[in-house]
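notes to self, project folder thing:

trying the whole complex as one job this time. last attempt i did each chain seperately and stitching them together was a nightmare. two parts in total, labels are on each line so i dont mix them up again. if this works i'll redo the older ones the same way
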Amino acid sequence: MLEWLSSLGITEVVLQLMLISAIMGLSIYFTLYTGMFSLANAAFMAIGAYVGALLSTQLDQPLGVCLIAGALIAGLIAIPIGWPVLRLRDIYLAIATIGFGEIVRIFLINFDNVIAEILRNQTGERVRYELLGGARGIRTIPTYTETWHLILFVLILTFLITRLHRSRFGRAMAAIRQDEKAAANLGINVVYVKNVVFVIGAVIAGAGGVFFAHLIRNITPSMFGFDRAVDILAYAVLGGVTSWIGPIVGGLTLTGIPEILRFSQDYRGVFIGLVLLLIIVYFPGGLINPTAWRAFWQRVRRTHA
Amino acid sequence: MLELRNVTRQFGGLLALSGVNLTVPDGLIVGLIGPNGAGKTTLINNISGLDHPTSGTIHFQGHAIHRAPPHQVTRLGIARTYQNIRLFGELSALQNLLIGQHLRGQASLLEAILFTPRYRREEQALDQRAHALLERFGLAQVAHVPAGTLPYGDQRRLEMARALAIQPRLVLLDEPTAGMNPSETRELGEQILRFKADGLAVLVIEHDMSLIHQVCDQVYVLNFGQIIAHGTPQTIKADPVVIEAYLGQEETE
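result (full assembly):
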């Protein structure tokens, strides 16, 4: 199996990155499933990655501690962010959360300089201060992440999601996506549900960030910018958000395809674009979408009849 | 049971409701009629918490609800339907009724994840009640059909069933018979009378006078945001002010 994958260009590291993308796809699945167009997941991934990397590089903590702390702190930061931001809807929510992502990125870049400046003002002499590493980020993070960690984490997440969908809370999420006002008039506390969902998404993204940092070993703020936010959205949208299988398939394929297409060298970008275009045209509701497949087969049958 | 005092709602320069006083007594069916744009839906939105009055008070069983968010109003036992149906279209009829019972459930998310006996018992009970409601409204065959693809009449009935799923003490119906033929209207009237038999109070917005006569104990007439008449269906029908504002207009059409 692994040999076959690596003959396609999918080495173990690529497979691990694919699984991390699946985790990120699942993190945005929660908000999208509740009808919230939030693009904050890259920022929460950054928070998880930095918290985890600091704990392992500065304090020699094991992966378990890094994971819990990274996920928890991402979730804690999501609480005060969600409260004001989730009053917004649709594209306005997207813009506000992109703004949050920029704040996090710029904070990470400038943190060391600001602290150094404060110290200089206090002591009166020039001080070198290095914790987050500015634009160069944190380096030589231990490689803790193993493939089975990621597979296990995805399995746990999917189990929790299937249980969630059969709960009152999960039904409230679907109701809010379909009609917020009707949901409120049925007794659902819309603001509460949205905030909890936002925090759940942040916790998962934070965990994804910890795994990511301990896989690629060097992290910089620019890895978690707008590009990453859009990538994460693409996993969910291309896979489809009608079920949790969608974001997983989306994350795996969108991260795997560029590697498989590596043989095409200079034309790689063109191929990737073409694949995306085909998916969007023929599967507007995402790859994992029963109605889209039915329509697709009907179209195939008609053209061959 | 429900008491509106001096309720005024202003949208910029427009006075949608102006000093409305209205009471829905325990266990009675109260009708609210009035020409299009009179402010009927605004009134229901203000009671159900989707909108809030600029001034005036709304009390339900002693609780002031004119500043309460919709989910808290619902918690006190007020359910509603909408003029333009607002079902969860992608979800099945059954799921719509399960969501309607949101407040009936106690089990936390953790219990659902752990699949505890309490959670399973509760889900079973919710499921049974949902099926009973589907049965009552003649929707048992379409339990698993997405609500958005149901025929119009079924959607109207499902929305009523969903309002009942809350186990309310007061139901607000916003033009429940819109788009229905006379025999369907009559059937729906019988459903509304059954609400009363079950001890519920009802506030119903209607254009169909035959339904008003069939079900209502009292009628309020709203015109340009003001209550212009109040009485039994018979006295309202004979009131010259009402005939001029509302009924007369209809007859000339």
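what i see at first glance: The longest helix of chain B spans residues 117-136.
need to look closer tmrw
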